What we know:
Blueprint: H1 2-10, E1 13-16, E2 24-31, H2 34-39, E3 41-42, E4 48-66, E5 80-85, E6 89-93, E7 104-113, E8 119-124, E9 137-143
Antiparallel strand pairs: 1-2, 2-7, 3-4, 4-5, 4-6, 4-8, 4-9
Amino acid sequence: MLKHVLIAVAALLLVAPVMAQDEVGTLTFTANGEDFIRQGFVSKDGWDISFSNVTVNVSQVRAYQTSPSYNPDEGELVRSDEMVGLPGSFVIDLAEGDEDAAPLTVATLEDVPAGFYNALAWTVAPPMDGDMAGTALQIAGTAT
Length: 144
């Protein structure tokens, strides 16, 4: 179960690319808990599992333009032509919205260098204050 949630966290942020050279544009970071968090699922042993909240704290969010393209199987960025980072941390409830909801907007940056952002990095860590202080990931739901 936790493995499935961590997979969703790993697929957490998507980047909408900006597509013009020597210009600036807008870069939008979104989060998506995917269908099994918003709609629930039935486990292999017959449990009907649903989530009321799947809250995660992400920080140090960075988008890269890499050359050559980033290969996740190799584990490291080969070369980054451009990097844009989000300041601060973001508490996101991946279960927010209805079953058909679009990904959640985490942040939008204006006037970023244009190009194709093809790699993303972030840290999941507990915030120092607020409702989630000391906890990086909170899962609440029911299983029947």
